[in-house]
Amino acid sequence: MPRPSRPLLWIASSRKDYGDFPPKVQEAMGFELFLAQTGQHPPSAKMLKGIGNGIVELVEDFDSDTYRAVYTVRFETAVYVLHCFKKKSKRGIQTPQSDIELIKRRYRDAEADYSARKNEERKR
Predict the structure, then answer these.
(1) Which of 54, 67, 87, 94 is a Cys-bridge partner for 74, taking CB atoms 3.0 to 4.6 Å apart?
(2) pTM of structure
(3) Is residue 2 in some structural domain?
(4) pLDDT for 124
């Protein structure tokens, strides 16, 4: 029996930034985002530390660069992609603090969007 699929919603420039990734990275991450939409655990997914539960990071290496997509599964009826970026820092694997702050802001935007969508559904 097929699993129900939650819509994939993009916050701010995340969709455009994802579109700038190499096609092979988009293909790999696209499949993993699909898995998240259907409630499965993507192979490269790991919880992003320092933000809380339900914030997940996908990591894909390609042509000596590392690409990341951060999404949240905290919402019952949607998966929100919060941030997509090419990791620039060569010092360790840690996500740069500026990206962490951006992800936190975009998570708040996702919360507001989700609340607005739920309120709109209730009005119908």
Answers:
(1) 54
(2) 0.91
(3) no
(4) 72
Q: Kindly state whether residue 3 falls inside one of the protein's structural domains.
A: no
**Is 1 among the domain residues?**
no
Nearest to 69 by CA among 82, 51, 52: 82
- Cα–Cα distance for residue pair 42/120, rounded to 1 Å: 31
> How many domains would you assign to the chain?
1
108 found inside a domain: yes
Q: For residue 19, how many other CB atoms are within 10 A of its CB?
A: 10
pLDDT of residue 58: 97
Give the pLDDT means over successive 10-residue stretches in the chain (124 positions): 83 98 98 95 90 91 94 95 86 80 96 92 78
Alpha-carbon separation of residue 13 from 52, 56, 106, 120 (angstroms) = 22, 18, 10, 24
- CATH number, residue 105: 3.30.2310.20
